[in-house]
Design goal:
four-stranded antiparallel beta sheet; 24% strand; 4 helices; globular
């Protein structure tokens, strides 16, 4: 796998986080002004995940693996989805807004992994598919949980609703990707 070469400036990253906060605030009916920023990079067609945490604990995470329009539009859609549509959590409330930590993962290309032995924890994210089941874990998840490579693969299977170790079976597809995380 070639390294995912995407560079975002601090200003671009700050704008993206401001955009997430704007989307959530607007949905909650709070007075706010939509931030603006001109950037060719932010108009590239890239996938992204928006992760919300409260006091270090997951509060919502939704994304698109591949781009469907400009990156800023994807981030805007995923911000609303992470805050208000993640089925694992109730919708974000006004009282939580101040405590939300925002993390954005801009997705690199998703490609078949030629050999699970090549997976680097903290660098690669995983997508596992078998039959009607699929699951994705971002690169930072394995690091945050202190997993080794095999545990990361097993937990991606679990996320897909599959038994641990299913990644070793011949008809299971293992895909990998990198992401710019901020």
């Amino acid at each position: 796998m070639q390294d995912f070469q995407l560079t975002l400036t601090d200003a671009e990253k700050g704008f993206c986080k401001d955009l997430v906060r704007f989307v959530i605030s607007r949905h909650l009916g709070l007075p706010c002004e939509k931030p603006s920023f001109e950037s060719d990079t932010l108009n590239a067609e890239l996938g992204a995940f928006v992760t919300l945490k409260k006091h270090g604990r997951l509060r919502g995470c939704i994304g698109n693996i591949v781009g469907r329009g400009p990156l800023i539009a994807t981030i805007e859609r995923m911000a609303g989805a992470a805050a208000f549509e993640d089925p694992r959590f109730p919708p974000v409330t006004v009282g939580e807004l101040e405590d939300l930590e925002i993390e954005i993962s801009v997705m690199g290309p998703l490609t078949p992994c030629p050999d699970p032995e090549l997976i680097e924890v903290g660098r690669h994210g995983l997508y596992i598919r078998r039959s009607m089941h699929s699951g994705l874990l971002l690169p930072q998840v394995a690091t945050e949980w202190g997993w080794d490579r095999d545990t990361f693969l097993d937990q991606t299977c679990v996320k897909a609703g599959l038994p641990r170790g299913t990644w070793r079976k011949p008809k299971t597809e293992v895909w990998w990707f990198e992401a710019v995380i901020f």
